[in-house]
Design a protein that fits this description.
The complex is a heterodimer of chains A (380) and B (96).
Chain A lengths: L9 H17 L8 E7 H9 L2 H4 L4 E8 L7 H11 L4 E5 L13 H6 L4 E3 L3 H10 L4 E8 L4 H14 L4 E7 L3 H9 L7 E5 H7 L5 H5 L5 E4 L3 H17 L4 E3 L11 H10 E3 L2 E4 L3 E4 L3 E3 L8 H5 L18 H5 L31 H9 L9
Parallel strand pairs in A: 1-2, 1-7, 3-4, 3-5, 5-6, 7-8, 8-9
Antiparallel strand pairs in A: 10-13, 11-12
Helix pairs in contact in A: 1-11, 2-15, 7-12
Chain B lengths: L4 E10 L4 E6 L2 E6 L15 E5 L2 E6 L1 H13 L2 H17 L3
Antiparallel strand pairs in B: 1-2, 1-4, 2-3, 4-5
The chains are: A alpha/beta (380), B alpha+beta (96).
The complex binds iron/sulfur cluster.
Chain lengths: 380, 96
Amino acid sequence: MRYVEEFRDPVAAKGVLAAIARVADEIGATRDTPVHIMEICGGHTHAIFRYGLDKLVHDGIEFIHGPGCPVCVLPMSRVDECVELAERPEVIFTTFGDAMRVPGTRKSLLQAKAEGADIRMVYSPLDALELARRNPEREVVFFGLGFETTTPSTALTIQAAARDGIGNFTVFCNHITVPPPIKALLDDPHMKLDGFVGPGHVSMVIGIHPYDFISETYGKPIVVSGFEPLDLLQSVLMVLQQIRDGRAEVENQYARVVPEHGNPVSLAAIADVYEPRPSFEWRGLGEIDASGLRIRDPYKQFDAEEKFGIGYANERKPAPEPEGCACGAVMTGRMKPTQCPQFGRGCTPDMPLGALMVSSEGACAAYWTYGGARHLEPAE
Amino acid sequence: MCLGIPGQIVEITDEARLMAMSDVSGVRREICLAPVAARPLADLVGEWVLIHVGFAMAVIDADEAAETLEALRGLGEAQETMEAMAEGQKALEGSS
Ligand code: SF4
């Protein structure tokens, strides 16, 4: 019960933990025959480690860390394309700070910036649009990255650019969607998944029904969850109760923020500006059908790939993952970060080799930060 | 980057563009209200919203806002967002 005292309501936390233990016992979950629950979202991964939830819950529950950190699933080849764009003399390349340190084949954006590329960290795509307004003689490219939570922001920004006739603004679109990789993981015969904790803020935009296939086709429970430790514990309990009762449903633990049908304005903006790509490359998962978005023809002038002839608008150069890196296996839950030979040796948050070590939402960084070197001891 | 941060709408700054000034833990930041603009903009002044990369994504109640802020502080996420906002401001000021 290491961290329970840190919870705002320790009594409630203890109550939920006890209920989790009871149901876990009822369904016969043990350390050797655990229930595998995937938390899809990187924010959840971070919270689980920050609060030590993996240690607090019954030891018959094993968390599998899903592919829900947009920085972590970005393949090396996309980072290379970013660097290529950023190094063009006319370009001001704008990005969220999270992406700066992801290693590419040649270099990261941080290294490119140190070598003179004009790269600026922004908080919002609206900042990038404002930069374009203020620098009409330059080409401002925004690195659009993220799942459905972030996609409406670039869609609305592109609509604003179109409305205001801003000709020197483009988006390098790397938006991806949550359902296709989950389907890919469920189709993988090596994956052992008994249920899911779903990403709350993605559902704030898309609602809960895009997950219907998980229960209807694959017969697995999923509970859309908030981000506080108590939210997560309650969601784990709801997943276990479904398993115990032989139910497979899409439940909404985070109804205080997540409307059943999502946010209509955001969904309309996404549908207006974007369409699915035939396929998109994910780090560790490879190309997945219809898992990424591209900018529709009427907004083509805002598509950096089209304007500069790179990425999917051209011959792509796939880049292999770095030597000795197990990111792919960790990403798909087949390996624990600590089992990667590079963990804590060739790869630490200060000197990341793989993307899972870069972002605080990456499983490797979370293990390292909250478990640290103790994971390196052979006894672990 | 997907967690967002609660802020309170202080005033509408550009009715046509659906822009408003928000107060995020004492820092002022202009945000876009489009996703929550189903109701009249004036009614949003004083409301708490969940802000994600400069857009108000959902209206939340004040208790939810306080609890979320506390959870984000625990995760170091609030600090990170405030730094990102400051960085964004710097990027704009550093221009031409
Ligand atoms: S420790 Fe580094 S190289 Fe190994 S899986 Fe994690 S991020 Fe990839």
